């Protein structure tokens, strides 16, 4: 990457999972427990039984049907291929078992860095945030440089400190975007970190809402107006988004969309794709 961040398709691609160039790291490094999202228990560092010798998932096309909704919603933001091809220079953990545990420890650190890059990339694409684009760009470049560190240095990173610095500029971006909504109808209960599990919000005008970290599990948001809404860190598992308008919403990820329920009438930001399970 050049010293100056240019918003082009290559950067966008680098911040999306490319399983063809990854050593199945999310299928090995991460633990999960048997639940509605996973069909069985798996310890961190143990390969999933569905992981094939070519590092591809044998049930990838049927994850939800096979009881792996959590996998279908997961997004590494391109960290998998970065660790596999750049940090470890294409040396996989099966043929180099002495590096396996270290690689599995590096992966979640890289995932956090790439997630920050994703949010910063989006903030840099927002016109209303142009007054702070220089600071956003500097932050992007700093985090991107961290992703190029050696595996030894990555393992010593104080990720929380870098996340706090990035969050300062993401918050400013959010304030600039949401201020455009000027929505006097916004319910007071709709705020950062709100517990809205199963909430009945169908058809409401929620433009400009701050839903950072909100618990919206199984919330009914059908036909809601969610333009210019901040979704960073919101839990939207099984939330009903059929007919909802999310155009212009910010910091909404593909993983969040994949975990929710919508339909062909749901309007998404152009950077996101309609999940296959939406009817």
Topology:
Layout lengths: L8 H6 L54 H5 L5 H9 L12 H25 L8 H14 L4 H4 L4 H20 L75 H6 L20
Helix pairs in contact: 3-4, 4-5, 4-7, 5-7
- Low-pLDDT sequence parts: 1-5
Average pLDDT taken over every residue: 94
Tally of extended strands? 0
Q: What is the domain tally?
A: 2
**Overall 3D geometry?**
globular
Class derived from helix and strand content: mainly alpha
Percent of residues in helices: 25-40%
Gap between N and C termini, in Å?
39 Å
InterPro entries: 5peptide_repeat, Pentapeptide-BTB/POZ_domain
Protein name: Oxetanocin A resistance protein
Quick description:
The chain is mainly α and 279 residues long.
Description:
With 279 residues, the protein is mostly helical. The protein folds into 2 domains: 3-178, no CATH class; 183-278, E3 ubiquitin-protein ligase SopA (Pectate Lyase C-like, 3 Solenoid), CATH 2.160.20.80. 32% of the residues lie in helices and 0% in strands. It has helices at residues 9-14, 69-73, 79-87, 100-124, 133-146, 151-154, 159-178, 254-259. Helix 4 runs antiparallel to helix 5 (133-146). It is globular, with a radius of gyration of 19 Å. The protein starts with 8 loop residues before the first helix and ends in a 20-residue tail after the last helix. The model is unreliable at 1-5 (pLDDT under 50). This is Oxetanocin A resistance protein. It comes from Bacillus spizizenii (strain DSM 15029 / JCM 12233 / NBRC 101239 / NRRL B-23049 / TU-B-10) (Bacillus subtilis subsp. spizizenii). Pfam families: Pentapeptide.
């Amino acid at each position: 990457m050049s010293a100056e961040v240019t918003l082009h398709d290559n950067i966008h691609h680098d911040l999306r999972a490319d399983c063809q160039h990854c050593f199945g790291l999310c299928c090995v490094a991460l633990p999960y427990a048997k639940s509605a999202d996973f069909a069985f228990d798996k310890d961190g560092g143990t390969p999933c039984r569905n992981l094939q010798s070519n590092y591809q998932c044998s049930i990838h096309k049927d994850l939800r049907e096979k009881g792996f909704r959590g996998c279908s919603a997961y997004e590494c933001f391109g960290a998998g291929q970065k660790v596999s091809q750049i940090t470890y220079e294409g040396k996989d953990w099966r043929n180099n078992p002495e590096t396996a545990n270290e690689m599995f420890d590096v992966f979640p650190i890289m995932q956090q860095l790439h997630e920050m890059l994703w949010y910063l990339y989006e903030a840099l694409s927002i016109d209303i945030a142009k007054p702070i684009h220089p600071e956003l760009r500097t932050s992007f470049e700093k985090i991107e440089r961290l992703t190029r560190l050696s595996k030894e240095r990555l393992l010593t990173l104080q990720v929380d400190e870098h996340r706090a610095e990035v969050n300062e500029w993401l918050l400013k971006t959010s304030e600039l975007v949401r201020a455009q909504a000027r929505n006097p109808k916004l319910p007071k209960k709709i705020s950062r970190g709100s517990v809205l599990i199963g909430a009945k919000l169908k058809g409401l005008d929620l433009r400009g809402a701050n839903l950072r970290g909100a618990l919206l599990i199984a919330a009914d948001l059908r036909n809601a107006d969610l333009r210019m809404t901040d979704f960073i860190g919101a839990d939207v598992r099984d939330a009903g988004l059929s007919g909802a308008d999310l155009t212009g919403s910010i910091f909404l990820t593909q993983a969040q969309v994949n975990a929710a329920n919508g339909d062909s009438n749901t309007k998404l930001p152009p950077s996101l794709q309609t999940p296959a399970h939406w009817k």
